[in-house]
Amino acid sequence: MDHNNTTSTLMRKTLMALTGLFLCFFLVIHLLGNLQLLLPTDQARESFNSYSQLLSGNIFIKIISYVLYASIIIHSLDALIITLKNKKTSGKYVYDQRGASSKWYSRSMGILGTIILIFLVFHFKDFWYQYKFGSLPVDGAGHKDLYTIVVGVYGDLWYVLFYVVCMFALGFHLLHGFFSAARSLGVYHPKYVAWIRVFGAWYSYVITIGFAVIPVYIYLTQHVLWN
Amino acid sequence: MKIYLKIWRQNDAGTPGKMVDYTLDNVIPHMSFLEMMDTLNEQLILAGDRPVEFDHDCREGICGQCGMMINGRAHGPVAHLTTCQLHMREFKDGDTIYIEPFRGKGFPIKRDLRVDRSAFDRIIMAGGFIAVNTGQAPEANGIPISHEDAESAFDSAACIGCGACVATCKNSSAALFTSAKVAHLAKLPQGEIESRKRVLAMVQQMDEEQFGHCTNTEACEVECPQSISVLNIARMNWEYALSSVTK
């Protein structure tokens, strides 16, 4: 049978699921690394800076980072194509109460994703770009002092609030996205579906709270309490 | 009961439609929603107006013909119900009720509340069957099937094709309808043989009929009169992924 299934609605969703799950995996590693920022100042500086050095020098990490950039781009473009096509097929009602039968965040993945994308622009500019192309101070061990940059950035209350709001957008995105990815990949056994739903919810809570706590903690300890 | 109605009136697919106001004075709470519509139509006919056209057949909740957006929800405010099984006791005296056709690119409007759902027929024709020669019914116990499998397949087969899943989906996706048939046949030994070929053909037809992507909001299961599970969609995705890899 002649069937081009690379452009089918299901294949686009499979692509969303695969790239999304890779990004979910990345978030875990990213969070574990960032938790070093919660250590006492001197220890955090040494640990975090040497960790950053380790990551930037490793060829294996470099390959993973290219997969990461590709995943972000493909996930966003695929979402754009899906959204545009859905806009064309969807029905419009004069009086619409369809929201009563589903969760708001499951219908708002595009908006939540856009917030995350805007966040990423700032995030890359402030840390990734600074580390790669900026002129950073050097710490006692001879590593680029990314820790000082982080502490500096989180000195702005508005930036901290922006960061926390974006983390909640990410949280709701994950709350639907994680389980939705498993659905798109075809996990249909009720036992595992229920398990994935619970795991996905806890995963979303941990990622959201974990990432949101770091800037708040740094703002309070470095900029409010001891100054 | 006095009921104010705002109903979508449209002459045919080519002319634009609009919401038209009607008032009914003598609605009895025990009336079904369609009986209320009949009452309105009697009133319109006596006044020399064209009655509001809507699909209906068995009025027992099993044929899947009746389907309207009632106050912005497929088959009205009660979950898991067909329009004919909705009763006027769900509304209050003096309520305003918005009635619109099921909408979606795959469901073009024919007139008023009637939509063309033949896209569903074409999806079934693409693969929603088993290719066996008809003849005398085979011995029922010739192929052993566990009770659990039989029940599970029957749950999927219970779809009545009303289209509420498409109407309520923000993307007008037909994933629940298509997957119910894919899963129904994949769960049984008679259907499993052709399941690889079937899922590819049915999904292709589904896409050609201009239904949108499933984004797993699960609204379809809530509105489905037969409570067809969204796990059927997961099963379809699984069958599709396997077929794509192994074909």
TrEMBL record, chain A:
InterPro entries reported in the protein's UniProt record: Cytochrome_b-558 (IPR011138), SQR/QFR_C/D (IPR034804)
Keyword Transmembrane helix part of the UniProt annotation: yes
Chain segments annotated as transmembrane: 15-39, 59-84, 104-124, 157-179, 200-220
Xref: Gene3D superfamilies: Fumarate reductase/succinate dehydrogenase, transmembrane subunit
Keywords for the protein's UniProt record, in alphabetical order: Membrane, Transmembrane, Transmembrane helix
One annotated Gene Ontology cellular component of this protein: membrane
Name of the featured protein: Succinate dehydrogenase cytochrome b subunit
Species assigned in the record: Pedobacter hiemivivus
UniProtKB/TrEMBL annotation, chain B:
Needed co-factor(s): [3Fe-4S] cluster; [2Fe-2S] cluster
4Fe-4S ferredoxin-type domain location: 150-179
Gene Ontology biological process terms in this record: aerobic respiration; respiratory electron transport chain
One GO MF term attached to the UniProt entry: 2 iron, 2 sulfur cluster binding
One Pfam family named in its UniProt record: Fer4_8
InterPro entries cross-referenced by the UniProt entry: 2Fe-2S_ferredoxin-like_sf, 2Fe2S_fd_BS, 4Fe4S_Fe-S-bd, Beta-grasp_dom_sf, Helical_ferredxn, SDH/FRD_Iron-Sulfur, Succ_DH/fum_Rdtase_N
Span of the signal peptide: none
Family in the record: Belongs to the succinate dehydrogenase/fumarate reductase iron-sulfur protein family.
PANTHER family per record: SUCCINATE DEHYDROGENASE, SUCCINATE DEHYDROGENASE IRON-SULFUR PROTEIN
Protein's name according to its UniProt entry: Succinate dehydrogenase/fumarate reductase iron-sulfur subunit
Species: Pedobacter hiemivivus
